[in-house]
Amino acid sequence: MGMKQDFKNRGQERRPASAGKLAQAVQKGIDNQFIDWAEDFGHVIKEKVTTSQIRNIYGTVKRLEMETEVDLAKVLLLKPRIKYTRARNQGLEELADELCLAIDAIEKGETPAEKQQRFRRFAQGFEAILAYHRAAGGK
Q1: Contact 75, 64 (CB under 8 A)
Q2: Which domain holds residue 47?
Q3: Which pTM was predicted?
Q4: Element (H, E) at 133
Q5: What is the full per-residue pLDDT of the chain (139 aa) written as tens digits?
Q6: How many domains does the chain fold into?
């Protein structure tokens, strides 16, 4: 949990000082700094987001990941689904923002192969957030 400097106390909540850490990992690759951030982020969202709310979106990501070649249109269509889920559920704001920024980063890949690689990183990063959310005692 070495990335504590990325979080600022506001009241009793810890909030990320800078959004887009998942998007950075999608673009540049997953490293120890991202893993530390994902652990902290899992703690931040544990009281706000239920595992079933995360898994609803994550299940779609895993289905896309199982395809031999990911259809970018299906990936982009995750954004309206995420925003709909966010509108229906209190507390999803931070996670929804991270996921949408990361989806934008996937689209910015220059070649189809790079977009595929970025999607794989997105799925892996999302999985790390989900795992740390659960490990932190997320409902």
Answers
A1: yes
A2: 4-135
A3: 0.83
A4: helix 112-135
A5: 444 444 444 333 444 445 789 999 999 999 999 999 999 999 989 888 888 888 888 999 999 999 888 899 999 999 999 999 899 888 889 999 999 999 999 999 999 999 999 999 999 999 999 999 999 887 7
A6: 1
